[in-house]
Amino acid sequence: MNQNSLKQALAAFPSAQGKTLVELSEAHPVLIVFLRHGGCPFCRQVLAQLQTYSEEIAERNLQLAIVHMMDQEQANKLLARYQLQNVETFSDPDRKLYELFQVKRGSLAETIGPAIWWSGFKTTVLSGYLPGIPGKDIQQLGAALVFDKGKVVASYFSENSADLPDWDLLLACEIPSH
């Protein structure tokens, strides 16, 4: 999809706060985080990491935007737990934004298979990120992208449900000045 087509498609998806990703990216580079389903313990771990990195995200002059598949009320409660209630949020239960940015769905082996079990044990039992009620699409994987002036300038696409972004690498990307 070319840049103009992407911009046009994104115009149909305002955030809960009323802005589109293109509008946000024209003002500041945007760190877009695509969450898995709301009950996913790895999703909760990502939110905790974003809370930890919030100061660095702000220092890099990045606007944080979170795309999720939950209803907005459920998302607001989850985000408030991690002090992320003031970020731009996009409820996408039909996964249209996921598709536009080519965030893949994993196979059952990539999402709940035996290779994920040890990571799941460490995340839930050892780190305390307890799962919630499984969401709409348990096979949806996550991603994180830096989006600037309508273009992706850096990205990280999870290979499985336990594969979390390398925030240091992603936040170190070169962003043209606004």
Automatic annotation (TrEMBL):
InterPro entries linked: AhpC/TSA, PXL2A/B/C, Thioredoxin-like_sf, Thioredoxin_domain
A single MF term (Gene Ontology): antioxidant activity
Top-rank taxon: Bacteria
Residues of the Thioredoxin domain: 1-147
Residue ranges the record marks as coiled coil: none
Name this polypeptide is given: AhpC/TSA family protein
Organism encoding this protein: Gimesia aquarii
